[in-house]
What we know:
The complex is a heterodimer of chains A (486) and B (240). Chain A is mainly alpha-helical and 486 residues long.
Amino acid sequence: MNSLVLLMxxxxxxxxxxPVVAKFSSKLALFxxxxxxCINLLLIMSAWVKVGSGAxxxxxxxxxxxxxxxxxxxxxxLLFSGLIASMVLIVWPWDAKESRLYSLYMLLSAxxxxxxxxxxxxxxxxxxxxxxxATYGIIAKQKNSSATxxxxxxxxxxxxxxxxxxxxxxxIYTLTGTLNIAxxxxxxxxxxxxxxxxxxxxxxxxxxxxxxxxxxNSWVAEVYGTIxxxxxxxxxxxxxxxxxxxxxxxxxxxxxxQAAFDLLLVVGMLGVISGExxxxxxxxxxxxxxxxxxxxxxxxxxxxSIGGSKGLWLAIAIMLHHLLVKxxxxxxxxxxxxxxxxxxxxxxxxxxxxxxxxxxxxSLLGVPPLPGFWIxxxxxxxxxxxxxxxxxxxxxxxxxxxxxxxxxMFNLVQTMYLKADADxxxxxxxxxxxxxxxxxFALLLxxxxxxxxxxxxxxxxxxxxxxxxxxxxxxxLPARYLGEKS
Amino acid sequence: MTKYSAxxxxxxxxxLLMVITGLLPIFSDSHTPMLVGKAILEGAKDQVGAAxxxxxxxxxxxxxxxxxxxxxLFAAASVVGLVLTKSxxxxxxSANNDKHDHHDSGFVAVNAxDLIFPLLLVVGMYIITHGHLxxxxxxxxxxxxxxxxxxxxxxxxxxxxxxxxxVSIIESFAGVSFILIGVIALFKGQSxxxxxxxxxxxxxxxxxxxxxxxxxxVGLKVGAELAGLLLALNSDEVVD
Lengths: 486, 240
């Protein structure tokens, strides 16, 4: 099992070696990345079987926790590792010429694997930074002035977020003297005071920059508007979720308190409202998708505020659904994007793409029997079960958001089915692999509709297991630290 | 208006941070808990065997963080190379300028740097190779190496005194060997980045197992990375 660290090490190795390989053969350099990701997928599959319903800890450098760094392997982290490998494969820059870009994509995936696996607070910060720097480069690589401006703004906001994240980690270290999350989970009483909770708030908002959280998401529309659509799919679909994974690790293991839930609930609701309002007014596709993505991350935070394994189960379901739908929509937008007026008559030019688009939208809105409906229903039911003013308010917000969403989405669909003007060409006819992947995503969505109950049972199992701090602590910490507690 | 709201925001943040700082145990009589710190201070000599405790933390206990930081540096250098590649239009313009701009920095600077250069190399290598014994190490020594090569470029801006291809090969080689040292441990059935070889005599140059080798890789990587950055800024066209 120790070899699972290769998930993170192999992409890093590839990133270092690609510049040299490119000197001899640029073809070989281009294929290094995808090959590494395929090996990773195989590793993940074999580990998935081996781990079974258990969990496993890797002690890096052979130092036992809490002094060393630990990687924690269970189905939750493996699920995300699998998503990372497949998502990067899908958006791999096949037509780019610069070998440095391949290196950056490899660094980005190494950092993502690290974020999914690591169970050490500072180590998570290092990977978060690596992810950030690689992303700046990939965005700034589009050499036009608006991309440079977007990248610069992203750099500033993200740096501010990183500082807050680091500050939160520093406060936790000062309070407890340890960085290992399992070790922190054994001394939660030190952290549930004002200082500890403010540390959680700093971590949530710091990581929230990448997770498109409400007050720190002003970069979203600008960045998604200037980068290639595949990259938007990667950022909105996956990278935002990895930041959420960081927050989830802290929330579930250390900060299971009402104050932390309330914080997530409030920023979640504000995100939903602000995102949907702007998306409603949007006049072009990418802007609409960006703000609707903000709103859905808001729903995710509301789900997390339920807490415990129920919250985690809903969060995983929402993340997977959002990855498929938003990722698919951004990949579709590679084919037709721009002002809504240009989309007139799309359905006549290409009935297939209009149909795929419709599937995504219907699931996003939560029309039965698509998976989006079951998720939204489970979320509302669970919120109602908890009761209390804020949770009822959240239900209201979610339902209101659905109405607004329906309004603007159907407006768009209507435009598509209008008769085209004679000279308009809504469709970018060139072949694009992203469209094929978008169709694949839609197919997955339809298939998962049939298997809703087994999938949700499986996700519940994963969540039950991963949200249990006792399993986490007993897997990671050696016996003598457990003795101290009891 | 924006100015005032920014001021209000900043002062609010400062106030909040001051309140939080006041709540931390650093000012009270009870000391801050040092669970991990104490464990490392007690165990480092036996577990890692480096005379410099900082090194045993940087390369032993938290070796993966160091690898991550190296990658961040590498990512930053790649981004600079990627973004600063000039367009062909600029290249033509600067080629024209070149004919009039062929000067070195003058007799004194050029000769002084030629004298200092080997000394800087020795100092840099010394700091790197003694990183496990004395304060210093790969990051610091690497910077000294980078300074040595940067000075060569600065005094003779137009003469290619360093081969950019060579720099990027050293950079890759150093990064790859850091990882390989970690992976060898993996093949021996141990954990990634586990220190190998015997600890040797405590405090001598040949001690602390593979740590000096790791620091050598770090030093070369940092040196090559920073020198490469300067070259990218200096050259008309970044060679990929």
